[in-house]
């Protein structure tokens, strides 16, 4: 069965798909987006119930393999120390992200030139800067101007509150003379574009019932749909199809009723992120592309980058009110972001401070640390840690390596029988050294802030939130999958706008940058519409 | 009572032993009714727990001449430990679910200084904090590399 052709077909309604859909809508082209998940209902998010903390281990868990949702697809990550964390719905992984929203730094685009490793991007900070600004307004970024770790920028909303916890940790950084700054956060600290203001619920990672967190189901999508974009949910794409001339002519998909469909299109945009995008390209084999669509370079799926994470937690004497406020957004430190070869590794990392834990997570953390006995001593032991923990995650820059990759699993398929992705990933020596350095420095700063005890874990296994590099951008078609405008070298009407086009990973959360790229690619398409397919 | 249902009086007493009364206003986990959350989550461990509960009661009667549930709280813990040694996994199978069930109870939340309601829609007030602490950071040279 075939449907009326459209001008633009976008696959994936997450962070990037939403941004490009909204930006292209002003052209009045007919735009359709296919999304394998559905709309989330914030009124059903766990924070509306007393058992909210346990949902992290159930329907709102990080791993698609454990949630039991039909909208997800399985990921074989057995051969990776870092496990994939994503979400499939309108809004994609922004439904569960912390909304920590830093930009890349200028140096992140010039890694080869500056530090002699990996590759330079074919675009730079200045290229993306205007799109970062647009994205800040659309996503509602809270922050504070004047951060010496960045070129000047002006977040549109005031920063998230430090609270007692943030202040305590900030004093630790000051004690050591290290950088810190209120986090750039996609959290509406005031009413913003129809979104309610944050009321400091705490657990942003299981969906924001308040609607204050900038997930794209409440930011870009309402605006894009209002502008005429058609968003079809519960539609899972099987493959991108080609015409006889080798141009993409649409996509085959399974609709919400389980029926096979084909949507014809003039332009196809892939926005399924660093695992979903290579999976779809590799599943789109043809006589012309026997190794997967747009894969003449052999690089589709290769150079997978996560951000290796560490977590360092401190126990303090005073109560910190850590259960209040956005769980992942407080303050950030980039003291060790830029390369200093004397540290024994290249590139660097960010510290992102975490709020404290709720009652259940406090108990489970106490159990896992072997410090919460049952019996007569239980309550004293619990009170010793309840609301007295604070900590940080470390986000290490991951460098691209071809052996770290996404392929198709030979056996595992999703609910519609489509082959699932398989991850092969190993932690590099550079990352290991960086993690060790970060744990030592993180421990140091927590102690400076007054922690009487610290615990660390590195790498953090369930922290595969950031999925990058598997359809990298470049000018050389033999060494990259897409050109500097996100267009596939091999298929000139196929664009990719998600984390898979990243050349390097930076040491910060990638959502802001991948959305800025989506807006930049949209701008290129709009500026060149008449000649785009010549 | 179904064949695989646990004897509630002793089950509750065991939960009260694992998480005792916090103070006079907040009884132990069993008395709070947390058993209703724990029991359905035992899965395949329910037979182990049933056997351990029976052994526990028998031990209490043998040692003290009363059922386990009638023992003073301070006398229960050693027996639980003893039975756990002879029924490996008994306590472990209960503790995780007892903790998670107990600490999501609204009455416990109040005892910890929280509201009894879930976070939404009430939320929390949170102070901005002292942004003057940034003065030292503001005085620093730029940290990013110019290209």
Structure write-up:
The complex is a heterodimer of chains A (534) and B (147). With 534 residues, chain A is α/β, with parallel strands linked by helices. Chain A has helices at 15-25, 111-115, 125-139, 163-176, 220-226, 273-283, 359-368, 378-383, 429-448, 511-527, and strands spanning 2-11, 31-34, 76-79, 181-182, 230-232, 236-242, 248-254, 260-270, 309-315, 331-333, 349-354, 389-396, 405-413, 419-424, 453-457, 494-496. In chain A, the strands form 3 sheets. In chain A, strands 1, 2, 5, 6, 7, 8 and 16 form a 7-stranded mixed β-sheet that branches. Chain A has a 6-stranded antiparallel β-sheet with strand order 4-10-11-12-9-15, with helices on one face. In chain A, helix 1 (15-25) runs parallel beside helix 5 (220-226). Chain A is globular, with a radius of gyration of 22 Å. Chain A starts with a strand and ends in a 7-residue tail after the last helix. The mean pLDDT of chain A is 97. Chain B is built from 7 helices and no strands. Chain B has helices at 8-18, 35-38, 46-64, 73-86, 90-102, 106-111, 135-138. The radius of gyration of chain B is 23 Å and the shape is elongated. The model of chain B has no long low-confidence stretch (mean pLDDT 95). Chains A and B meet through helix 4, strand 4 and helix 7 of A and helix 4, helix 5, helix 6 and helix 7 of B.
Query: Structural class of chain B, please?
Result: mainly alpha
- Unreliable spans of chain A are none
Number of strands of chain A: 16
The portion of residues assigned to helices of chain B is 40-55%
Structural class of chain A: alpha/beta
Main sheet specs of chain A? 7 strands, mixed
pLDDT averaged residue by residue of chain A: 97
The best one-word shape of chain A is globular
- Rg of chain B is 23 Å
Helix-strand pattern of chain B: HHHHHHH
End-to-end gap of chain B: 76 Å
- Main sheet of chain B? none
Could you tell me the strand content of chain B as a percent range?
under 5%
